[in-house]
Amino acid sequence: MRKSTVEAGLDRIDFAILEALQKNARLSNKELAAEVGLAQSSCLARVGRLREAGVLKSFHAEVDPRAVGIGLQAMIAVRLRQHSRETLEAFRRHTLSLPEVLAVYHVAGANDFLIHVAVRDADHLRDLGMDAFTTRPEVAHLETSLIFEYVRSPGMPLYRPGEPEKPRRAAARGSRGRSRPAAR
């Protein structure tokens, strides 16, 4: 469900909480409350409200891909034969059920989906494409692009109502979100 900041009822304190948690999701409630200038009980209630409203979706641990056997990442562009809602939803469900899939993007343009995958090696990537995608009757075309470097921004831009168009973003810390090429 998509909610605008107005619909979600976000105020400057909520934005401060979001910014702080994007910088460091491991902050204790005590540390977060001190950073945003709230009593601990009020801060805990706000974070709970943000989670219930779906504004805060989850908290993640960033894992070094090489440490868990991932030697290659790729984007797989998929074009479907037909574009009914049922076909799109069935394909999305199938794709999200695959353990190799990191992210699925439903896009406009020549392709219908971009799928970010993480695999052991080139053989694993080939087998994934052949077994999980080209065997699907709704798939008309597949194109794979290898990812040489993956660097993720540490947070979403925060667009506050009534402020200039330039968003504020949580500052990056260390090498979070970085993945290096597996083999050259």
Strand order of the largest sheet: 2-3-1-4
Strand fraction? 15-25%
Distance, first to last CA: 42 Å
The residue-averaged pLDDT reads: 87
Describe this protein's structure.
With 184 residues, the chain is α+β, with helices and mostly antiparallel strands. Helices cover 33% and strands 19% of the residues. It contains six helices and six strands. The chain has helices spanning 5-8, 12-23, 29-36, 40-52, 85-96, 122-133; strands at 72-80, 101-106, 113-119, 139-147, 150-151, 178-179. The chain has a four-stranded antiparallel β-sheet. β2 (101-106) and β3 form a beta hairpin. α2 packs across α3 and α3 (29-36) crosses α4. The longest helix is centred in the N-terminal third of the chain and has 13 residues, at 40-52. It starts with a helix and ends in a 5-residue tail after the last strand. The relative contact order is 0.16.
Characterize this entry briefly.
The chain is an alpha+beta fold. It contains six helices and six strands; from the N terminus they run ααααβαββαβββ. A hairpin with a 6-residue loop joins strand 2 (101-106) and strand 3.
How is the topology of this model organized?
Elements: H1 5-8, H2 12-23, H3 29-36, H4 40-52, E1 72-80, H5 85-96, E2 101-106, E3 113-119, H6 122-133, E4 139-147, E5 150-151, E6 178-179
Antiparallel strand pairs: 1-3, 1-4, 2-3, 5-6
